[in-house]
Amino acid sequence: ENEPIMPEEILSGELSLKKLIIALKANKNPEKMLAEKQDLEKFLSQKINRSVEVIIPTDSATVVESFRNGTLDLGYLSSTDAARNLDQATASILLVHLKNEKPYYNSIWLSLKDKPYQSIEELKNKPVAFASRSSTSGYLIPTWDLSKKGYVGPEVALTDFFSQTIYGTGYVSAVEKVLSGEVEAAAVSDYVYKGDNKYLSDDQKSKLKIVQEQGPVPAHTLCVRSSISKKDKKFLQQALMEINLENPGLRDRIFNGKLVVVDQNKHLRVTREALEIQKTLKP
Fold first, then answer.
1. Which letter does DSSP use for residue 149 in this model?
2. What is d(CA 89, CA 70) in angstroms, rounded to the nearest whole number?
3. Is the pLDDT reported for residue 154 higher than 90?
4. For position 1, what pLDDT does the model report?
5. From CA 138, how far away is CA 186, in angstroms rounded?
6. Of 17, 99, 126, 221, which sees the most CB atoms within 10 A?
């Protein structure tokens, strides 16, 4: 039982699961998500010789439940969602992605380029959008930053500081609210604006500017259902890490960078600290 499993043995072995179900984050436009779903299904089903189904839940709360009842095997989750699953013992971190060779990145506030805003305090009494309630870079870390600066707290809610707070269904939906004029600024991850055009077009980027950066944001995680056997977890970890060499293009489109093994508690330290502070804020 406690014999270490060697990599050669793993991939020559096979997955005891007859089918693999993976959840991706709904953070891009629907056409791109559909292409990612099909490409990942095709690549992985050939790799592990099993049928693979990729689902794109719009509500991350369903992920915890799906891990618990065994209807989900792997999930690409924000560190916020990963922490929730770890705390409920429904899943553990299998891998995380690196961004510029680091397992973290920054959160940013974006506004229209022609607006005068230079910092978050200038957005007081203005309407803003967060990427989603479960986003680490698009909600948790910017809220943590506001709390550290004393703008929100046990007596002051987000809705006391801002005139209105709207929650999107992912990065793009929040930025679209800035472009349409519905809100003055949106909190998203820095690579949405600084990275390639996976999320926004050059035309959209040309109309925007960064008001403020905050961080660090622990990178997204690939979590695996707790009730899967140790041998299957090792097999999946190995199979997914081979995407690094075999299909870096697909890996970067879906997982934003190289997949690596980390110490899960160390990786989630900042996220958990921010979640604790969030509990003390006036709702």
1. T
2. 13
3. yes
4. 45
5. 8
6. 221
Average pLDDT over residues 28-37: 90
Domain ranges, ordered by start, for the chain: 7-101+219-273, 105-217
Using the CB atoms, write b or e for 80-98: b if 16+ within 10 Å. Answer: bbbbbbbeeebbbbbbbbb
For 38, the enclosing helix (H) or strand (E) is helix 30-48
Q: Specify the CATH number of the domain 7-101+219-273.
A: 3.40.190.10
Does pLDDT of 255 surpass 80? yes
Give the separation between CA 283 and CA 268, rounded to whole angstroms. Answer: 24
C-alpha distances in Å from residue 83, one per residue of 87, 138, 169, 269: 6, 16, 20, 9
d(CA 237, CA 260): 9
What mean pLDDT comes out for the span 46-67? Answer: 93
Confirm whether pTM is higher than 0.70.
Answer: yes
H or E segment and range at residue 5? none
Q: Which of 97, 177, 94, 110 is nearest to 142 (CA)?
A: 110
DSSP 39-61: HHHHHHHHHHTSEEEEE--S-TH
Share of the chain above pLDDT 70, in %: 96
Cα separation values, 10 from 48, 113, 169, 194, 280, Å: 11, 52, 38, 38, 45
pLDDT at position 26, please? 82
Q: CA 180 to CA 30: how far, in whole Å?
A: 19
pLDDT bucket at 121, cuts 50 / 70 / 90: very high
Distances (CA, A) of 73 to 67, 84, 194, 257: 7, 16, 32, 21
**d(C-alpha 45, C-alpha 71), whole Å:** 18
